[in-house]
Amino acid sequence: MNQTIYKDNEGNAVRFSKIAKIEGEMPFTGLGIKYVSSGEETYYANNKKFTVKEGEYIIGNDYTSSIVCINQKQAVEGLCIDISAKIISDVAEFHDLNETDLIEFLLSDQFLVNRYHIKSTFLGPRLNEVSQKIKMGTCINEFQQNELFYTLAESIISDQRFVFDHLNKLDFKKTITNKEVVRTVLDAKSFIDQHITENFSLEVITSQIGISKYHFIRVFKAAFGISPYQYQKWKRLELAKLDLLRGNEILFTAISYGFADVPTFSKAFKQQFGQTPGLIRKSNF
């Protein structure tokens, strides 16, 4: 089953599929998103293999040559969204008048085709929301308005500006090397985000991405400006702050995010936010 939910003359489209077996070309139009809501799909995009599992998506553009392979016992549910080049350009230009280089990156053969997890991007939660609405049959009217595509484009711009900026920070001589490095650290960042409450060693991360610990630390710092440990700590404290604002207890929050005790958590929290956990928690009451 491959159902077209919405399609217009500008190149914007939304399709929902439920397929167990298929192998063939899978074009990306404008900026195209292939999201897997259940099951697993394999893409061969620009001669690189991407295994896209439940809760993940791959994104490409008109220059992306792609073949999709699905061979599962149960039908794989997926969402395909095409966002026109015009909408992408409009959104990028609105947010920053000097976005010419970013627009060229997004819509040319320089674009970094990659797989992402919905927990690690701005776009991810929106894709999950759209998918759930389609399954419940409650979103047809929403798709008849361009607002949806502009909202998705805003999330893509936020995510891809991050990729674009960090790709330009790397100074390896070959562009293809820079792209592989960015893919590697994005995979590592996604792994950390998905397991943010767990305490794991560098060996666990590097075994997932297939590089040495030293090389991983070096390229992560080159891309993001901070070490993997510093990123994990920053991310935990950001999430802990949100939990405290929701009224969660300080001790429970500290332990949930891997801190040994409240004093250790409080010290790190104050260093990052300039206030104690107690003051932050009280500020929302």
From TrEMBL:
Q: Which Pfam families match?
A: HTH_18
Query: Record's superkingdom?
Result: Bacteria
Ranges where the HTH araC/xylS-type domain occurs:
186-283
Tell me which UniProt keywords the record has, alphabetically: DNA-binding, Transcription, Transcription regulation
Sorted alphabetically, which SUPFAM superfamilies does this protein's record hold?
Answer: Homeodomain-like
Q: Which residues form a coiled coil?
A: none
InterPro entries noted in UniProt: Homeodomain-like_sf, HTH_AraC, HTH_AraC-typ_CS
What name does UniProt use for this protein?
Answer: AraC family transcriptional regulator
**Native organism taxonomy:** Bacteria, Pseudomonadati, Bacteroidota, Flavobacteriia, Flavobacteriales
